[in-house]
Amino acid sequence: MEPGQSGLLVPKQNPAAITAAVNQLLADPEKAKAMGSRGRQLVETKYNWDVIGKQVSAIYEEVLTKKKK
């Protein structure tokens, strides 16, 4: 994720930070829309099933290769 570009990061269990982030997005709908588009694009390219499948396959391959040694 690109903080401020494709989403906002807030500390966990911090209602004040979440409120501030939501208010920031509500105050600037164009920024919110652009951020949402970039976030969606990031998820579609980085976390799609083809990518995840290749990553899982690489992990299995690595584990099996190490096990044979």
Write the layout of secondary structure elements.
Blueprint lengths: L14 H13 L1 H18 L2 H20 L1
Any overview of this molecule?
There is one protein chain. The chain is mostly helical and 69 residues long. The chain has 3 helices and no strands. The relative contact order is 0.11.
Going by helix content, strand content and strand pairing, the class is mainly alpha
Helix count equals: 3
Written as H for each helix and E for each strand, in order along the chain, the element string is HHH
The parts where pLDDT drops under 50 for at least 5 residues are none
Q: Total strand count, please?
A: 0
Beta-strand residue fraction: under 5%
Question: Given the C-alpha coordinates, what overall shape results?
Answer: elongated
| Main beta-sheet strand count, sense and barrel state | none
Note the gap between the termini: 37 Å
What structural keywords apply?
elongated; 69 residues; single chain; mainly alpha
